[in-house]
Structure formats: C-alpha cells, structure tokens
Write a structure and sequence with these properties.
heterodimer; B: Rossmann fold; Rossmann fold; 4 domains; 18 helices
Chain lengths: ~375, ~525
C-alpha cells in the first residue's frame, strides 16, 4: 500500500529504563523550546537575541535568576499539589483556592497576634497547612461521601476562597491606616528572611523540603505504592484491603496543605501582607507543570523552575518586543504538547523495517528469504 | 459421523475446484517483539470448506500468527498467501478486503450502539447500504440463513456474551469474509451455547468458507474440526493432520511437548471444622446483576466445594459478597465461627484469599509491574511488611522467587502486568494470593482461557492448598472441572444455590437438570 520503501513499526516496551524516561522528557522540552524559538522568530524577535532572552537574561544574571527562583517557589508548591493528586487520579483544579486559604490562615495568625513572637511563624505555617488541607479535604470528602466530581468541587471552591479573601480585605481585615484593601504589613518576625541582596527568600527551603518529602513519599514509602494501586484500579484495591477512602482523603489533604504553604510563602516571603493579588493565575500553570514533570516530584521541581524561567523570559519579551502576554501561554502550551508527544518513545520501541517486495509469489514449500 | 464430516469437507474443496483449493498458506513465518520471539517459523495451510483447529498453549504463537494473517501487524519473514495470492497485509482493512474476518475473544463492538448500528458502522460502505431499511433487510436475511434470532434494535451492551458473539459473526460475514478466524469462541460460552457455536462453525465451513478455530479445548477439536494444526513455542509441530487420526492424549502431548500434567483429586476432607458459612444471604437487586437469594453454604477445612452453573447466574456476585465488596441486605457471613467483618481488608486479615474470573478488573493492576503487584497485599496488611522505606530492590527481590516458582513467562519483575498473557496473569494472581498463611480460598473460573498445562498447574495448586487444610470454594462454569476437583458440589442457578452433595453421590444428569432448571 505504502509507497515508501521503509515503514515504522511500533512495538510496546516490556520494561522502561529510567534513563529513557529522563531522556525523552529532556528531549521533549528541548524540542518544545525549539518550536518556541521558531514562533518568536516568526513574530519578529531576531534569532541572535533569542540566546540572550532565554539563557542570559533568565539564568545568566542576578536579576533574572532572582525573579526566576522567587517565582519558582510558589510554582513548585502548587504544581506538587496537583502532582500528588494526579497520582491517585484526583483532579485538583483548586490550587488557587487552597493557596488563598493558606494565605488567609497565615495572615489570621499575624492579624490577631496569636501566640508569642517566637511561635508566630510556626503557627502561621501550621495555619496555612490546615487552611489549604481543609479546602482540598472538603472536595475529597464530597467525592467519597456524595460522589461529587472533584473537578467541579475543587474548581468552585477556588471562587469561594477568593471571595472570602475579598470580603475580609474589604471588611474586617482592611488596613486601618490607609483603607486600602490590604492587611497591615507583617511584623519582621512574621516575615520569611531574604537572602542578603536578593528578593529571593527562605521560602526556597520550604519548596526544597516539600519536594524531598514528596519524592520520598512517592518513591520509597508504602503510601507511594498503594496510591499507585488506587489510581489504577479502585475496585481491585479495596478487594485487596487497601484503605481506598483513607488514601484518597490523606492525599487530598496533603496536596491542599502543600498549596496552602505556597500561600504562606507568598504572603510571608514576597508581599509581607495579604493583598488581592496573592493567588491569581496558578491553575493552568500548576496543571501544566505537574504534567510536564510526569507527576514525579523531582520532575515537577525541574519543570517548575523551567516554567518560571519561561515567565521571566516572557517579561523581558513583553518589555522589549511588545509581544502580547498570551505569547508566554502559547509557549507553555508548546512545551506541554511536545513533552506529551515524546511520550511515545517511552511507551514504544520504534524500529524502521524495510518493506518486503510484495511481488514474490514464491511457489509453496520454498521459503522466502 | 466423523466420516461424513470428511466427505463434506472434500466435497466443499471440490466445489471450489475453479479456484485454488488452498485458502490460506503460511510457511516459515517469523515474528519478534523486541527480544521476545513470538513466531520462529510457523506453518499453516487451510483449505476451503474445512474447519481447521489451531491448537497451542498460551504464548505458543497462535494469536500472533492469526494477527499477521488478519493484518494487525506484519511478519518479519516467511510466506503468507491467501487464495493463492501473496498476502502480506499491512493493515486490517487490506486483510478484510481480501475476505479475512477475525472474531476476537474480546469483541470489537461499540457497547452503547444497537446491533444494527454496530453492523452498519462496520459494513455500510462495503455493502453499499444507503438507508436503515436496506441494512436491516440484509442483516435479517443473513441472520435467518444462519438460523439465529437477532434483535437489531437492542443495545449491544445489553446482550449476553453469546449474543454479542453472534453479532460479531454477522458483522464479519456481512463484511464479505470468506476466511473466518475464531479466537477461542467457546471460552466465554456455557456448555450448551458452546455446542451451538461449534455447529455454526461447521455450517459456515460447509457453505464453502474456511474456518480457523483457535482453541484450547481438545473436545472442540474432536467435535468439529476436519484438520488440526498444533503450535508450540512459535513453531508448528503438527501441520494440518486429520483431526480424527489423533487422540486427545496425542494432541495434548503435541501441545505441551512432554508428559501431560495430570490432575488428581484430593481426598475428601471428613474433618467437621467449618471455616466459612453463609446463612440465607440475599443481595440487593441492581441493574445487570443477578442478586443472590437466600443463599446458604458451609465450607469445611481442607475440602474443595465446587459451585457449578452457567455463567451469569450470580457467580461474580457470590465472590464479591464473600470478599466484602458487596453488602448483603440480609443474612450472615461467618468466617471461622465469627461474623465476618465488613471491610475487605479485615476479611483478608482473617485468612480469606480470592482469585477472580476477570483478571484485570478485580485481580491485577495493569500499569504496575509484576513486583509491585506482588507487593501490594503485604504492604496493605496490618501490620504492613514495610512502612517507611519500600525500595524497588526489595519488591524485585521478593518477586523473583515467585516468578520462578510459578513459572511466570513473558515478563520479568519490572514488566507491567498488563503485558502478560492470560495464563501468566493468572499465575501472577495465584503467586500473590498464595503467599503467606491463609485458610479460605474463593476461586472463580480459575482455568478459563488457560492451556492444558497451565490449567493443570493451577488445579494442582488448588489441590495442594486443600491438602494443607485450606477450605477452597471453587466457582466454575466448566462442569468437567468441577467434577474433576471437587469433593462436594452445589449448583448456582438464578442466584439460588442447591444443597451441596458429595461427589460420590453426584449424578451428571441430575446436575445438568439443576444447572438448567434450578433447585
């Protein structure tokens, strides 16, 4: 049928070596970056400047690095939250709501002066964990008890949390000194310290600890394997005695808590108070990054830093070439598509076969070469 | 009777004398998937008008050979000819245009569509149907010719398995198939339905078509086939021998290559200890389910209690109720003299194990590796085997022993379970469920779809377990199996269970009556 002398044959791989997964992920990202570069050139960015924008500006100078890493902290946390949930096939579309709840929890401790000064920050962290965990936990309980689809509940809880924050900012928590819809600035001992001379703050350690913890959880804990089983087949899991409901609830609460920590990191590390802009535009990036990182905590960490770099590059592109904001989203989408497409190399062994000439009507009994 | 079959086949071959008598000619076909060699020089020759049985163990290469013939993938080497023409099909459509139709074990039908919609979807273009009425007329004519009633407006997912199979056959025939490949058509059918299906195969061949019957059941061969080809380890070991010339023992030996594994019945346990008791268990009626009605049974230590019956009479519901996935509306389940806990995990902790009929729905996690599948129950147990540091190395290490002991082929510890063939998947489930101490074993159709040797290995495991004192409840739709292994037999019919009778007092006729009519 085909005119080509060769044809591609895809055969499923029986076992996938780890290096292959890593190589295809990197290959997918590189190919995506190449596509982005072509796109940018088409929009009038000189090819010679691309290296500048992508490498030098993002990773090659202090301002770029500062911006990239600071942004990466919250991206790592919210994406980790989505990734944890993905492992049990629980769609967490509610990282913004959980982030808002975490931010509000931390702010409440500061606003009402709860606890002595040296306990203030641990209490804020605890409140952020509880706020975020609760918000995702509600969706998990609704799924388990009422069979409510978590895509809808987590999504809608975003708005509830956001409107609650608006209500507080325009009401009880409004700054009494100037009536702006922001809370009073946190006390110095309520703020995460900065690295001297950088905007980058100690929230980095939260992101690192959470990443290592999640990596251990997914790879070396009992929970890691059982959650994989639950994701694959809930009926078989419960038949084999896996506490499916408990694992679902625990994962959701944990994921919510991680998002809540992002809220804490932004309020205590960047804004130093609760503002209206704490938790915006995290839903799509968190899902994209979780997918780019294949829901693997280390992969998510790398992908989050890469996407943060992309945003930094996007800022510079906006400033110098007047490219629209949607360009960054488009590039993000490109990366997502190429990484997804490269998945085929992981799942299949691809070989090139020479098509045998069809005309050999060999007499029976004689073997074809 | 056997003589007439041969005569008919010869006549059919002669009526085709205008064209070449050989419908399918495959010589020295090879195929490898990565490092796994599926076919190492397989031969097959099928003439028009015959039912040609293709026998072989799981993984012998039958399915690979047929998939090549049907164009699902190409061969690496060898000759493939259909009706005298070279036929290296690169896609199923080309094979189907050449008159090859395959009836798969897992039907390729669209569940939510009706029978007629499914058939139109597959054949409307080729048959040139423009309107629904044209299609309906063609379908009804064909159905009448073949002599089975058909409900064209019923949704396919509401049909029984045997009805779906008939729709599949209609679809393939209307698509113009002259060479039919039937992949274990009787595996999913009850005994009476299986006989009908074999008659149909016979009839299709008598009309001048070529029918290739892939099967595990030696009985199907002797009942229907004209000639038989046996495959072992990717090669043809018996190439188109007359089916009447070979005894079942000879065929079995050709298939397994050595001594046939023999199953021996264990001694009936006379110990009075009851390990499991169901008292008047009734489950709620729900769509597509057969509720259990006042079902009572007692399972003793060290016995195999066989539950016979046609599929779809409450077998799955019984298994799921015992393991705790379904809650009875009334009645009690008593394990070791105490009311069974509600949660499946707690029931498992009392020593209850199960082997489900559907290996991937209830049994295995397809995307997890063999090692991970084996590690799930010990990690889910109380207390877990490991808590804070579960390494791949630990899982792999404990898996390798099981893989050797249970002879799981076609995969290593890191292979995803979904890539295993049916027989090996079953061995994996057994390896997992037989680990550690247990006292009650519920199995459902444990050897369905397995070849002779794999089936014997599984059955021997069940006998060994019973000999160790495990109470085995064997739910099976294969009466021969129940008769061969059980020490007592009860019949499940429409969700009701007859009183169990000792095997010595069992009369096959009486069992048949119970199976068909209920207690």
């Amino acid at each position: 049928m085909s005119a080509l002398p060769y044809r591609l044959v895809l055969s499923p791989r029986l076992a996938v070596p780890r290096w292959l997964t890593a190589t295809t992920l990197i290959g997918g990202i590189l190919f995506g970056v190449l596509c982005c570069a072509i796109l940018l050139i088409a929009f009038g960015v000189p090819a010679s400047d691309l290296g500048n924008e992508f490498v030098l500006y993002v990773f090659g100078n202090k301002a770029g690095l500062d911006q990239t890493f600071t942004r990466a902290i919250s991206l790592v946390l919210v994406s980790m939250s989505v990734a944890l949930c993905l492992r049990i096939r629980f769609w967490n579309i509610g990282v913004e709501g959980q982030l808002w709840m975490g931010a509000m929890g931390a702010t409440a401790i500061s606003f009402y002066h709860i606890g002595p000064w040296f306990l203030r920050m641990p209490l804020m962290i605890l409140a952020a964990i509880i706020g975020g965990g609760l918000w995702c936990g509600i969706a998990a309980i609704a799924k388990l008890k009422l069979r409510a689809d978590e895509v809808i509940t987590t999504l809608l809880l975003n708005y509830v949390a956001y409107l609650l924050a608006q209500d507080l900012l325009y009401g009880a928590w409004r700054n009494p000194s100037d009536s702006f819809p922001v809370t009073p600035t946190f006390k110095p001992y309520e703020q995460l310290p900065n690295f001297p001379g950088w905007h980058l703050h100690y929230g980095v350690f939260i992101a690192l600890i959470v990443t290592v913890f999640c990596w251990w959880l997914c790879r070396y804990s009992r929970f890691g394997l059982l959650s994989k089983a639950v994701a694959e087949n809930r009926t078989a899991s419960s038949a084999l005695g896996i506490p499916v409901a408990r694992i679902t609830l625990m994962t959701a609460c944990l994921a919510g808590a991680v998002s809540g920590l992002a809220g804490f990191s932004i309020t205590a590390g960047e804004e130093h108070r609760l503002t209206q802009f704490v938790g915006n535009d995290y839903i799509f990036p968190s899902i994209a990054i979780a997918y780019l990182g294949r829901a693997n905590p280390l992969g998510v960490f790398v992908a989050a830093v890469a996407v943060a770099g992309l945003y930094t590059a996007g800022d510079s592109l906006k400033a110098f070439y007047q490219l629209p904001n949607t360009m960054v989203v488009t590039m993000e989408a490109f990366l997502l598509l190429t990484v997804a497409a490269f998945d085929v190399f992981v799942r299949y062994r691809i070989t090139l076969h020479k098509v045998q000439p069809k005309a050999v009507a060999a007499p029976s009994g004689e073997r074809a070469a | 009777m056997t003589a007439t079959i041969t005569d008919r086949a010869e006549m059919a071959a002669m009526t085709n004398a205008a064209g070449p008598a050989v419908a399918v000619h495959m010589r020295g076909v090879t195929k490898a998937f990565g490092e796994r060699v599926a076919l190492a020089g397989a031969d097959l020759s099928v003439t028009w008008g015959e039912v040609h049985a293709l026998l072989g163990e799981n993984g012998a290469g039958k399915s690979s050979l047929m998939n090549i013939l049907a164009g699902f993938y190409g061969a690496d080497g060898g000759i493939v000819e259909v009706a005298g023409q070279p036929a290296a099909f690169t896609e199923p459509r080309a094979a189907s245009a050449a008159g090859i139709g395959m009836i798969h074990q897992h039907f390729k039908l669209v569940g939510p569509l009706t029978v007629l919609e499914n058939i139109r979807l597959a054949c409307a273009k080729r048959c040139g149907w423009r309107t629904r009425d044209q299609a309906l007329a063609a379908v009804e004519t064909m159905a009448r010719e073949l002599g089975f009633p058909i409900k064209p407006d019923v949704r396919v997912d509401q049909l029984s398995v045997s009805e779906q199979q008939k729709v599949e056959i209609l679809k393939v025939l209307l698509g113009g198939a002259r060479i039919l490949i039937m992949d274990e058509p009787t595996a999913v059918l009850a005994e009476s339905e299986a006989a009908g299906m074999l008659q149909l195969a016979r009839r299709l061949a008598d009309d001048g078509r070529a029918v290739i019957l892939i099967t595990h059941k030696l009985r199907d061969v002797s009942a229907t086939a004209d000639r038989v080809t046996v495959m072992r380890a990717g090669r043809t070991v018996v190439d188109g021998a007359p089916a009447q010339g070979l005894s079942a023992a000879e065929l079995a030996r050709a298939m397994v290559g050595g001594e046939t594994a023999v199953v021996r019945r264990g001694a009936a346990s006379s110990s009075g200890e009851v390990v499991m008791e169901l008292k008047d268990v009734t489950t709620p009626a729900a769509e597509h389910d057969v509720p259990l009605r006042d079902l009572s049974l007692r399972l003793h230590k060290g016995e195999i209690l066989g539950i016979a019956g046609l599929g779809g009479n409450g077998q799955s519901e019984l298994l799921e109720t015992i393991i705790g996935l379904r809650t009875p509306t009334q009645g009690d389940i008593i394990l070791h003299g105490e009311t069974a806990p509600l949660a499946p995990a707690d029931r498992r902790a009392t020593g209850l194990r199960f082997v489900p009929a559907d290996r991937f729905h209830l049994g295995l996690f397809g995307s997890l590796t063999l090692a991970e599948n084996l590690a799930v129950p010990p990690l889910a147990a109380h207390p877990p085997a490991k808590r804070w540091w579960v390494t791949q190395g630990w899982m792999r290490g404990r898996a390798e022993g099981s893989i050797r002991e249970y002879e799981i082929a076609g995969g290593v510890a890191d292979t995803q379970a979904r890539l295993l063939s049916g027989g090996n998947a079953q061995k994996l489930i057994l390896a997992r469920e037989f680990e550690g101490d247990f006292s009650i074993l519920v199995v459902h159709s444990p050897v369905r779809g397995l070849d002779v040797r794999a089936a014997a290995a599984v059955q021997n495991r069940l006998l060994e377990a019973a000999a160790r004192g495990v109470g085995v409840l064997m739910i099976s739709e294969d009466l021969d199996e129940v008769l061969a292994l059980s020490s007592r037999i009860a019949v499940l019919s429409h969700g009701r269970l007859s009183a169990a009778m000792p095997i010595e007092q069992t009369d096959r006729g009486e069992l048949g009556r119970l199976i068909l009519e209920g207690a």
